[in-house]
Amino acid sequence: MPGPGAEKLRDPRRASRIWLIVATVVALVGVGWGHLGIGATVSAMRRDFVAMRYLQSAASAVAAKPVDRAAIVAMLDRAVQIAPDNDVVAQQAGALYMYAGAYPTAAAFLSRISDPDLMTQIHLGHCLLLSGRREGGARVLHQATEAARARKRSGAIAPFVYALYMNNIGYAYAAAGVELDRAHSLLTEALHIEPLQPAFIDSLGWAYYQSRDYKRALFYLERAVRLAGPLNSAETYYHLGAAYARMGRIRLAAEALLKALEYDPKYEDAHSELHKLDYALPQPIRA
Predict the structure, then answer these.
(1) Is the pTM for the entire model greater than 0.90?
(2) Residue partners of 210: CB distance under 8 A and separation at least 6
């Protein structure tokens, strides 16, 4: 769920969703330094500098293993407390709050941006959907889809960036379990452009999972994990584990879910899925 800057990744075909997020946020935080301006007071410049440093630390923490979402949220809280009126801080904090699962907080910051770029609009739609505000989220994402297609027709964006927009919009629908036909269409379009992108493959797999087409979901989710390799995340392993569970492949499901918890020990969905599997797992042999 990245934005400008993602196209500068060394090898975007091999990037996972988490690394696309990090690449975007780091790139845009870098842009934020230029917004301090020579006309700003020394105290304001110092304040914004410190806030940006908190944002950079939070972006780095996103890629850490194991990830600590509470620590990420604490760093973001500090950044926006230090620079409450800085739109660049609000924009990037919103994207990172989204990754940390704090969707209502993310939506609050993203919705206050007066002139949001297209990726910020997509982030906002995603957060609105996952905050239960489905009508508003769907409306934002429909508008973002049309805007992305207009840019593609005019040649204003590179094919990978267009595919990135389609993936992020499609995944937002899949994550919320809504408009799944639209999600399939957008994600298939993204994969047609970037067929080896693990994050896109994972997104389509999760859309099929949400449609209860578990066999097809598993085909994509296994492939996504295999292609991502060391760039996998708790999310990709959770998706794979959930699909294995629905297919009755209990031990593989448990292995994938435990792997997800190595990346994010407090991943509630993975814990919940493992709890459902307990009855089917063999009990340890006691002497």
Answers:
(1) no
(2) 174, 177, 180, 183
